[in-house]
Design goal:
alpha/beta; six-stranded mixed sheet; 30 helices; 26 strands; elongated; binds 1,5-anhydro-6-O-phosphono-D-glucitol; binds beta-D-glucopyranose; Hexokinase_N; allosteric enzyme; kinase; nucleotide-binding; Hexokinase
Length: about 900
């Protein structure tokens, strides 16, 4: 037991007793028993260390029970300061030092090497505010901010504020934090469970004197850690022992289950004040601790804090002194109102009484009383320091585990009045840590300004992220289409449809397909089918029997050189594939009727005549546009002697898809493709198709909606990124609607947005990534992968790193948002198009409500996790009187082409009969 000395005067009291000799007199058993209770053995400390470590690791894994002993709260501070932070920041500190708050003006000078002393002002919070209504507390804080700023040369510049809020909070971002429970004598109503940043913003708004933006909220331990001087190398632990106690440290992000992270480190606030493992704590809890706890504002909570925090040390000493006095062991058995009144002994009193200097000179009437008082102070404070050391040793052990390092070198930033005022606390803590964590080399860095600079650092980072977020939102805002804008697209498309059907100027060609009916199930026979124009070129043999349709197909590639070579080369390649397929399928020499799905805009003059109007989707074979592609195919067949093929029908992939789904569901009267390209067809009333004779019956119209807006009607919605992608395409000014929707272009739009955000410094720390300069490197399939809900952020990073991007998690999050904005716009525009078509069919038929199915195909529609549901939602919004179901085509449009051929053959036979 250390020797101690102190004055015996309590605040406002006359002297009771003071020491005679400097050799400590012997203590009687009751006194000894009293002090012995505060002795904590090494094995008890080790047990606390181990138990706390266990609680920390369970909480990190999210395995802790409902009321975890320690909370391990992510703080969204992902890196220790890298010294580049610059600017003037306001800091508001609430709760670190008891019933007071502090406002600071901190100027960060980045790497300019000189320091500007922060200007600060402290305000005492009236007790009725500390336990009053939450609004009152935040209004008080806003008032103090205003009073502080009245004395600063601020003018009306927007001010960025970092809010140091020293209570346990669930943080969901740097500027969103929900208070879990008050501690340290605070008990304001209407705050627990609330976002304290919003409460402060509302109060500042109500005050209305200064334009202050609260950009970050941090725990005081984080501010202390972030504020520690870089000289010593970054601190990775922040330790506070002030009115309360807590620590934070830099944990490997992958170990924090609450975060979807696999790389880097993140700061975790331990909130060890609530550590209460009865197994570990019960042996060290004294009767005085139970009395104090029962008398506190939060009985049963923060038990560990109540043995260490400066708010409680004075009270513990008072309880012991009162106990000893009441048992005649002190002050001659006398007590006093102050000695008996809770809260009368404060930390500074304990520090004073424990200070050995005091004993020498002062006039204490009874030396042995003074001695005993000092012993009590020392016992209470030493225990606090040792318990705090055991907790810190648990954090160090956690750091060793998470870094898989046995020997650990770490700097701990310390802050708080107990450190500043209590002479021996720091030494006992240091010594005990050395005993409990001998393989750790720990340097303690006292915080110079109570963490104000650290909070400003976090605020600077948050301000930078907030500015980035704003830039991101401004960049993506044009992609968020509201109901009015989509309604306008629907109306414009409707008008263009009518003009196209009438043969008037319209960006929608509304091409008759000569398909007058969807299959009725009576089709029979074997057919060859070709499917050109999507991701894959396929040759199929389709058997249509009573029992249904059997398909065998083979995928062939169309090399870019062929797709952009000569027409003859392209069609010879197609015939080569057919011959290869016939040989593989043992069909050589058989002349089966052939249906040709040709997914490009064709003016059809009949079922087997289609004049190619223009290539799309990266195809550009020469000498084809303006030609009848059925002729081109037949010529190629002729060039390849000894091959007999009977080309019966040419259909667009939308028509093939509609027919294929129509075979299963007769209500299917629309075909939709959202793949490499996009387009739609539907069954129009023949009377509305002026270019085809006849007033009754229907005609399937290939809308070629990819060209919608080529007349500039989509100009208002087109962004600078759309213009870049269009200009870089092989058909600038063409297929504008397609270039905002389909798979061939979405990846490119995203790539250009990423390049733009990088050039603004928002992404990849402003470092332009070489890989992103390459056209088409950001595939549209990446959007589908990145936006998948089941994909954790780390997997998003993996996709982007495979591309050669060096990125942070924030970058990955932003890339995902860019993908979401681009694909969402595409789906909504597509939905507006479908709504225009089904509404036209409904009005064509004068129906109150239309029930119709849409056959759909295309990789983007099928593979993207949200595209199809967004299209359906938009159609419900814009065409509420149409009950639309979307049927994903299983066998592609090749089957549809075979069915069209089958219908044509059946009609031809009945015509011969
Ligand atoms: C599969 C169809 C084909 C169509 C394609 C579109 O069978 O006719 O062209 O879907 O999707 P993409 O392959 O372009 O993603
Ligand atoms: C709070 C912590 C805070 C600590 C030190 C505790 O009561 O729960 O959030 O860091 O006091 O101020
Ligand atoms: C073509 C359409 C086709 C669509 C889907 C567009 O580029 O012009 O004919 O239906 O792509 O493949």
């Amino acid at each position: 037991m250390d020797t101690i000395g102190a004055t015996c005067l309590l605040p406002g009291e006359r002297a009771l007793a003071c020491p005679q000799e400097n050799r400590p007199p012997l203590l009687d058993s009751s006194e000894l028993e009293c002090l012995k209770q505060f002795e904590v053995t090494r094995s008890q400390l080790q047990q606390i260390q181990v138990s706390l470590l266990g609680c920390m690791e369970r909480a990190l894994k999210g395995k802790a029970d409902s009321a975890p002993a320690v909370r391990m709260l992510p703080t969204y501070v992902g890196s220790v300061p890298h010294g580049t932070e610059k600017g003037d920041f306001l800091v508001l500190e609430l709760g670190a030092t008891g019933a007071s708050l502090r406002v600071l003006w901190v100027t960060l000078t980045g790497t300019e090497g000189y320091k500007v002393e922060p200007r600060s002002q402290e305000f005492v919070i009236p007790q009725d505010v500390v336990v009053g209504a939450g609004q009152q507390l935040f209004d008080f804080a806003a008032h103090c901010l205003s009073e502080f700023l009245d004395a600063q040369p601020v003018g009306n510049q927007p001010l960025q504020l970092g809010f140091s809020f020293s209570f346990p909070c669930h943080q969901t971002s740097l500027d969103r934090s929900t208070l879990i429970s008050w501690t340290k004598g605070f008990k304001c109503s209407g705050v627990e469970g609330q976002d304290v940043v919003q409460l402060l913003r509302d109060a500042i708004q109500r005050k209305g004197t200064y334009n202050i933006d609260v950009v970050a909220v941090v725990n005081d331990t984080v501010g202390t850690m972030m504020g520690c001087e870089l000289g010593a190398g970054p601190c990775e632990v922040g330790l506070i022992v002030d009115t309360g106690t807590n620590a934070c440290y830099m944990e490997e992000a992958r170990h924090v289950a609450a975060l979807d992270e696999d790389r880097g480190r993140t700061c975790v606030s331990v909130e060890w004040g609530s550590f209460s493992d009865d197994g570990a704590l019960a042996p060290v809890l004294t009767t005085f601790d139970h009395v104090l706890d029962q008398g506190s504002l939060n009985p049963g909570a923060q038990r560990f804090e109540k043995m260490i925090g400066g708010l409680y040390l004075g009270e513990l000493v008072r309880l012991v002194l009162a106990h000893l006095a009441q048992h005649g062991a002190l002050f001659g058995g006398h007590t006093s109102p102050a000695l008996l009144s809770p809260g009368s002994l404060l930390l500074e009193h304990v520090a004073e009484m424990e200070d050995p200097q005091l004993r020498q000179g002062d006039t204490c009437p009874d030396a042995s009383d003074a001695e005993l008082v000092q012993r009590v102070c020392a016992a209470v404070c030493s225990r606090a320091a040792r318990l705090c050391a055991a907790a810190l040793a648990a954090v160090l052990a956690r750091l060793q585990h998470s870094r898989e390092q046995r020997a650990l070198q770490v700097a701990v930033a310390t802050g708080g009045q107990v450190f500043e005022r209590h002479p021996r606390f720091h030494n006992i803590l240091k010594e005990t840590v050395m005993h409990l964590a001998p393989e750790c080399e720990v340097s303690f860095i006292p915080s110079v300004d109570g963490g104000g600079r650290g909070v400003a650092m976090v605020t600077a980072v948050a301000a930078r992220l907030a500015a980035h977020r704003q830039l991101l939102e401004e960049t993506l805002a044009p992609f968020q289409l509201n109901h009015e804008q989509l309604g306008a697209v629907q109306a414009q498309m409707r008008e263009a449809m009518v003009r196209g059907l009438r043969g008037e100027a319209s960006s929608l060609r509304m091409l008759p397909t000569y398909v007058r009916a969807t299959p009725d199930g009576s089709e029979r026979g074997d057919f060859l089918a070709l499917d050109l124009g999507g991701t894959n070129f396929r040759v199929l043999v389709v058997h249509v029997t009573e029992g249904g349709v059997q398909i065998t197909n083979q995928v062939y590639s169309i090399p870019e050189g062929v797709a952009q070579g000569s027409g003859q080369q392209l069609f010879d390649h197609i015939v080569d594939c057919i011959v290869d397929f016939q040989q593989r399928q043992g069909l050589s020499g058989q002349s089966l009727p052939l249906g040709f799905t040709f997914s490009f805009p064709c003016k059809q003059l009949g079922l087997d005549q289609g004049i190619l109007l223009n290539w799309t989707k990266g195809f550009n074979a020469s000498d084809c546009e303006g030609q009848d592609v059925v002729c081109l195919l037949r010529e190629a067949i002729r060039r390849r002697q000894a091959v007999e093929l009977n080309v019966v029908a040419i259909v667009n992939d939308t028509v093939g898809t509609m027919m294929s789904c129509g075979y299963e569901d007769p209500r299917c009267e629309m075909g939709l493709i959202v793949g490499t390209g996009t387009n739609a067809c539907y069954m129009e009333e023949l009377r509305n198709v002026t270019s085809v004779a006849g007033d009754s019956g229907h005609m399937c119209i290939n809308m070629e909606w990819g060209a919608f807006g080529d007349d500039g009607s989509l100009g208002l919605l087109s962004t600078c990124f759309d213009a870049i992608v269009d200009q870089a395409s092989i058909n600038p000014g063409k297929q504008r609607f397609e270039k905002m929707i389909s798979g061939m272009y979405l990846g490119e739009i995203v790539r250009h947005i990423l390049l733009h955000l990088t050039s603004c410094g928002v992404l990849f720390r402003g470092r332009q990534a070489q890989c992103l300069q390459t056209k088409d490197i950001f595939k549209t399939k990446f959007l589908s992968e990145i936006e998948s809900d089941s994909l954790a952020l780390r997997q998003v990073r993996a996709i982007l790193e495979d591309l050669g991007l060096l990125l942070t998690s924030d970058d990955a999050l932003m890339v995902r948002e860019v993908c979401q904005a681009v694909s969402r716009r595409a789906a909504r525009l597509c939905g507006a198009g479908v709504a225009a078509v089904v509404e036209k069919i409904r009005e064509n038929r004068g129906l109150e409500v239309l029930t119709v199915s849409v056959g759909v195909d295309g990789t983007l529609y099928k593979m993207h996790p949200h595209f199809s549901s967004l299209v359906a939602t938009t159609v419900r919004e814009l065409a509420p009187r149409c009950a639309v179901s979307f049927l994903q085509s299983e066998d592609g449009s090749g089957k549809g082409a075979a069915l069209v051929t089958a219908v044509a053959c059946r009609l031809a036979q009945t015509a011969q009969v």
